[in-house]
């Protein structure tokens, strides 16, 4: 017999782990699934090994689930080949098991917006290969819902920021350098407004969608504080640390710091996100479900604290 309240998070990166922690905090039974099944596990969460690359593996991973949260991601250079296969497996599994599916999504399907504010009504005009791939996946998710094969909802996030977030333009390329007085990387034009979504708002938004089936069958923008220029974000970090940042601006894609040649080669087609404003509006989810995003000031305080501890643990 299916447990009525089992929520399963697929993927144990920052998003999946933070979602699992948020669901446990809300009192749900939670299973966190990834390919290793080992590592730091949030309180109240059962972590298990699983491979969602096949329908059989995905069915085993989500068995007994009422709600499944798809937070699996892969390296940029593998996405076009791997993400559609994972979609096939996860959709097939939730269809067979009768679970609802909450999908963590990106802004890539919109493509270049030429500075227009992105809402859930913004056209999907991606020209990049990864943007077109994401748009095709999203079309298939929503078609599966419309056709009654699965109950699906999508939550889109801007660039991640927050405790535990390393691989983001406001992550490992910024905070370690800020705290150690070494180089901090800014991409493109840092005087353009750019939305950043706190990873805990990603989790709260997805958990809220998981608890509200009435939101199914559409895209929602996850709760995100108002956009600032990246320069303003850097200045706020400087004020908190009481010292200037040693900022290096990367005006075009090239390997730097945590971004190696393979990553940059695959990311280059998305570099438009740093040469035009990236402003995401999350009014709909905030007003519909009464949730507010964490303010940037708190996000930066908590992220700096997390990185201080992270750097202390990793000193050699």
UniProtKB/TrEMBL annotation:
Gene3D superfamilies the UniProt entry points to: NAD(P)-binding Rossmann-like Domain
GO CC terms: cytoplasm
Molecular function, one GO term: aldehyde dehydrogenase (NAD+) activity
Domain NAD-dependent epimerase/dehydratase stretches: 11-216
Pfam entry (one): Epimerase
InterPro entries the UniProt entry points to: Epimerase_deHydtase, NAD(P)-bd_dom_sf, NAD(P)-dependent_oxidoreduct
Source taxon at top rank: Bacteria
Name of the protein in its database record: NAD-dependent epimerase/dehydratase family protein
Originating organism: Streptomyces triculaminicus
């Amino acid at each position: 017999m299916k447990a009525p309240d089992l929520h399963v998070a697929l993927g144990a990166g920052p998003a999946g782990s933070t979602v699992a922690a948020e669901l446990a905090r809300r009192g749900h039974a939670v299973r966190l699934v990834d390919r290793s099944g080992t590592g730091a596990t949030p309180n109240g969460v059962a972590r298990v090994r699983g491979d969602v690359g096949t329908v059989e593996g995905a069915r085993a991973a989500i068995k007994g689930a009422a709600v499944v949260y798809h937070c699996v991601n892969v390296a940029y250079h593998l996405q076009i080949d791997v993400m559609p296969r994972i979609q096939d497996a996860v959709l097939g599994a939730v269809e067979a098991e009768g679970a609802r599916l909450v999908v963590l999504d990106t802004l890539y399907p919109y493509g270049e917006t030429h500075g227009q504010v992105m809402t859930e009504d913004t056209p999907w005009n991606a020209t990049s290969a990864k943007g077109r791939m994401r748009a095709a996946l999203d079309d298939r998710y929503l078609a599966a819902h419309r056709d009654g094969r699965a109950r699906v909802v999508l939550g889109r996030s801007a660039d991640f920021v927050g405790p535990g977030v390393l691989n983001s333009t406001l992550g490992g390329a910024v905070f370690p350098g800020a705290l150690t007085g070494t180089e901090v990387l800014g991409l493109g034009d840092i005087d353009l407004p750019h939305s950043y979504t706190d990873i805990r708002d990603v989790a709260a938004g997805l958990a809220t969608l998981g608890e509200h089936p009435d939101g199914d069958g559409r895209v929602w923008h996850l709760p995100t504080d108002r956009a600032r220029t990246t320069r303003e974000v850097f200045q706020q970090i400087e004020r908190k640390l009481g010292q200037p940042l040693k900022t290096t601006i990367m005006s075009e894609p090239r390997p730097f710091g945590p971004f190696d040649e393979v990553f940059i080669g695959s990311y280059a087609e998305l570099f438009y996100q740093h040469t035009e404003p990236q402003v995401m509006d999350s009014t709909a989810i905030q007003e519909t479900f009464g949730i507010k995003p964490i303010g940037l000031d708190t996000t930066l305080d908590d992220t700096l604290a997390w990185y201080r501890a992270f750097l202390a643990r990793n000193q050699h």
